[in-house]
Amino acid sequence: MTLTPEQQAEIDALRSQTQQTLRATVPGMEAHLYKAYEVLDHGFIRVIDYMGDDSAICQAARVSYGKGTKSVQNDEGLIRYLMRHWHSTPFEMCEIKLHVKLPVFVARQWIRHRTANVNEYSARYSILDREFYIPAPEHINAQSVVNNQGRGGVLEGEEAARVLEILKADSNRAYDHYEQMISQEGQDGLARELARMNLPANVYTQWYWKVDLHNLFHFLRLRADAHAQYEIRVYADAICKVVADWVPAAYGAFEDYRLGGATLSGKALDCVRRMLKGEEVTQENSGMSKGEWREFEGVLNDPA
């Protein structure tokens, strides 16, 4: 991704401003404000605004005035308790607003998380840029043989080259036709809201996305997971780095209990108890299906 001189000038101008405020600010988050962090080949995330910090979570949990206790250890312990017992409301007191540039097919996955406020770039009003997501060769994969919505091994050699050439050619051909249809030269030109339907799902769009911390953690738990699709996972990973600087205690608890933890079914927990007693447990005597057993083994042997 390369920012235009105009975009970089806008970011520099915003970062040069200083505002006096009585509200809580976080030095780590202030360092992130307005900066564009590259994701994929043309995408980025930017923090536009935020509200709250770790203390705001504790303040809401205690319904207290000011910062509550002065002990960082006490606050961190409370946050871990809240996370451990799924008390979500105090985390909703913190909010973040992001500017995200992403491929349309990633946006369609992302928008499934409906507990946020979104305003997307309008292709009815404006003309989309000729920017498409083209995967790097190491991310051109075959279909998984064990997961209908996952990837298998990496395609190599002529097969990978053929796929990449098709992706590039089809993307540019569709955009050429898009430009031809909306052109005003020698014709009336098709309405932009109609012409956009010819664009491929890998064209880039942009939006402002505002979400509270509880729902952001839910998004990150699913999308920063190793099993999430790569193209949305890299956005989640970039957001994780920002959130870790914004609410370090809350993110630490989230990383421990959600990203690094696992949920076991009653059958799985029973198998663990039997294993601890020295009993040999197999898929056949576990009461689980083959798919459940495979996932159970994955948790025990390789949490990632």
Automatic annotation (TrEMBL):
It holds the Pfam family Thy1. Its cofactor is FAD. SUPFAM superfamilies: Thymidylate synthase-complementing protein Thy1 (SSF69796). It comes from the Bacteria. Homotetramer. One of its GO terms (biological process) is dTMP biosynthetic process. InterPro entries: Thymidylate_synthase_ThyX, Thymidylate_synthase_ThyX_sf. It catalyses: dUMP + (6R)-5,10-methylene-5,6,7,8-tetrahydrofolate + NADPH + H(+) = dTMP + (6S)-5,6,7,8-tetrahydrofolate + NADP(+). Keywords: FAD, Flavoprotein, Methyltransferase, NADP, Nucleotide biosynthesis, Transferase. HAMAP family: ThyX (MF_01408). FAD binds at T89, R112, H113, R114, E120, D212, L213, H214, H218. PANTHER family: FLAVIN-DEPENDENT THYMIDYLATE SYNTHASE (PTHR34934:SF1). One of its GO terms (molecular function) is flavin adenine dinucleotide binding. Transmembrane segments: none annotated. The active site is at R223. Belongs to the thymidylate synthase ThyX family. Catalyzes the reductive methylation of 2'-deoxyuridine-5'-monophosphate (dUMP) to 2'-deoxythymidine-5'-monophosphate (dTMP) while utilizing 5,10-methylenetetrahydrofolate (mTHF) as the methyl donor, and NADPH and FADH(2) as the reductant. Binds 4 FAD per tetramer. Each FAD binding site is formed by three monomers. This is Flavin-dependent thymidylate synthase. Its EC number is 2.1.1.148. Pathway: Pyrimidine metabolism; dTTP biosynthesis. DUMP binds at Q109, W110, I111, R112, E120, Y121, S122, A123, R124, R196, R223. The keyword Methyltransferase applies. NCBIfam families: thyX.
